[in-house]
Amino acid sequence: MTAPVAAWTGSSLRDVPSVRGADAVTGPQQYDVRNDERARNRRVAFLVPLLPLAFIVALGAVCCAGLAAAGAPRLGLVIVAASLVLGGLVVAAGLLSAPANVERLLGAHRVADGAQPRVENLVAGLCATFGVSHPPLFVLDDDRVNLAMVATSSGAAMVVTTGLLGKLDLIELEGVLAHGLAHLRLDDVRRGTLAASLPSVLGNDAIRHRLAGQGRLFRADEVAAVSVRFPVGIAAVLDRCIAQPVPSAGSYFATEHFARTRWLWFDPLPGDPSNDIGELDAPAVRAQALAEW
Question: Which residue in 11, 61, 96, 51 sits closest to 207, CA to CA?
């Protein structure tokens, strides 16, 4: 097995901090999930919900400075104290509601146990390989091939499209399911979900991607490919995603809801190959990298 070389920006993937450690080793071991990256994902997941607090307190501090300059420092201190309280309430509300909000945004419905035995049997076997708990399965009624892992109030959930269920052969299905479970192994599901839940006033798509983790989809491909020992299956699904046309007006993947959560999905750029160049998480870049294994 040889290390893939990316087409993005013309540099080696070893130069990407989010994908490789400084002391990366050669061979399959270099793709193993490291304790430090799991810890980093948990740390970011802790910090992301605090951004509204920082934003509100910063506004309070600006008001305080203005009032102090106008000769009303006590009123300014009251506003700062109020901003702390308000920010704390916003953070608490966000932590409680973010998972539920993302589930609602995805528009998926829970599948009863045993209703999708083909998927459930594959997931059960892969969970043993990855050493993770079996996530509940949700299905989004959409003809496109896609999958997302989402944090909920009761743990992580796997969301698949009806297109994924109906169009993939066994090897392809195993590959994309392994990609989803790799996010559990990397402990980045909550981080990605909270980043997707960030209010628009605090960040655009680029900021949400950075907070979710640039290179997170590429990294999940690596972990999945090593675990199933057959990267061709994952690459084949990526090729399918690249070949899919632009989402139709009635598709979930043509909505603003999807735009907010795109970095949770296996294919974050459906029907938009123009964004492939320079984007490590783009399907075309990931497919090329897997083809070089």
Answer: 51
Q: Residue 230's pLDDT band (boundaries 50, 70, 90)?
A: confident
With beta carbons less than 8 A apart as the criterion, state whether 214 and 277 touch.
no
Pairing of strands 147-152, 155-161: antiparallel
pLDDT in tens, 141-163: 999 999 999 988 778 999 999 99
Burial zone of 273 (CB within 10 Å; 0-12 exposed, 13-18 middle, 19+ buried): middle
Q: Is residue 20 situated within a structural domain? A: yes
Q: How many residues does the chain have?
A: 293
Q: Is 158 exposed, middle or buried (0-12, 13-18, 19+ CB in 10 A)?
A: buried
> Which domain covers residue 134, as residue numbers?
13-46+108-291
pLDDT digits (tens, 9 = 90+) for 8-61: 333 333 333 344 333 433 345 567 788 898 999 889 887 776 666 667 777 777
How many domains in the chain? Answer: 1
- We report the CATH number of the domain holding residue 28 as 3.30.2010.10
Contact 280, 6 (CB under 8 A): yes
